[in-house]
Amino acid sequence: MPFSGNRILVFDPQASGVSGDMMVGALLDIGADITRVVEAMHTPKHFLADCYELEITVGDIVVRDIRAKRVDVRVKEDTSSRSAQDLISALSACLEGIRISDEANRYALHSLNTLVSAEASIHADNMDDIHLHETASADTLADIIGTATALDDLSLFTETTVYSTPVALGGGLVNFSHGISSSPAPATLEILRSREFPCRGGPVAAELATPTGVSLLTSLVHEPAEFYPPMKPLSVGYGAGARDFAEMPNVLRVTYGDPVYAGLTRDDVYVIDTNLDDISGEKIGFTIDRLLKEGARDAVIIPSFNKKGRPGHVIQVITDSPNLERLCEILIAETGSLGLRIHTCERRMLTRESISVEVTLGDVSKHVSVKIARSTAGQIVRIKPEYEDIKSLAEQTGKTYREVTDLVEKKASEILQ
User: Residue 210: is its pLDDT beyond 90?
Assistant: First the structure.
């Protein structure tokens, strides 16, 4: 039964990793139509040369006291490798033969391209020349098609924000077509690197995250998160992996539910701070200016008393993940700090926008920039004219700052009604 409305979907691969069959199983477990999904997963055998049998079974099993859906894909084929172009062409043909949305089509193709691009990057080949081995099997396409169809059946490509906890990679050694390699497989790690997607090793010495699984996951997730977002769970599903481990249940959990809003939007940021007691005010001011120009969302100076009663300062910087390392380097280089503290922090914010308001006072007409803060329901919480614009208009007209501010706020309110 399709889901509808603004919803949250959380994949939780931090204990047992992720694979394509686990993705499909978890989505079937929260209600995707099994008949429709399995029928779609059979299509690769009609478009892949040398694939003469593709059998898919779905069943409920108990994995260390947790009931889960296991999707078993069995393939018989007369080849051990295929070109990337053969796979892409076959997937395109499969997608033409099944009834799924344009969003699902794009997701399936994007997931395969993510996988192929990672292999090409590792082998320093063009995508047109790359040949795949383990990931060239028909079960790769079956997993991609099954995941896209299940998501489409549940209407999860629209009005749904998708989160994921960090991916458990496992560890140890894995034997594949190019010989023995450390786990995770090179393609798995390349996909995670290219998407800057969080991951961690363990908790067992085995391959937990597969290239197909991480390509499907990273192509879908809007926001990685260390913890679940505020939500009301409506459905929880478990997709079982093919192997059993003594250390933990080998299942991928997916949770579907309603967001819990307080009229605020949410995001995750990093907070960098360091204590300083031997730097001039001029250097601190220059450092703050440079941090803001280099991408810091905010930077503040907090007076402090340090050891031995010395007066000092704490510089605190708020940033997002892409700018984190660069801002750390700048902070150390400019201040001479010997170390920084970094915290992951969850924020709640009003939605902000800026409008231009034309104001006429006597013979003076001026466009004033006004910041509007709204709740997620669209309610206006705050109207704030830009300081420099108000100052300029007050100086030109001889009006007080308060008079000009009141006039601009009233004009903006009329426009926004």
Answer: yes
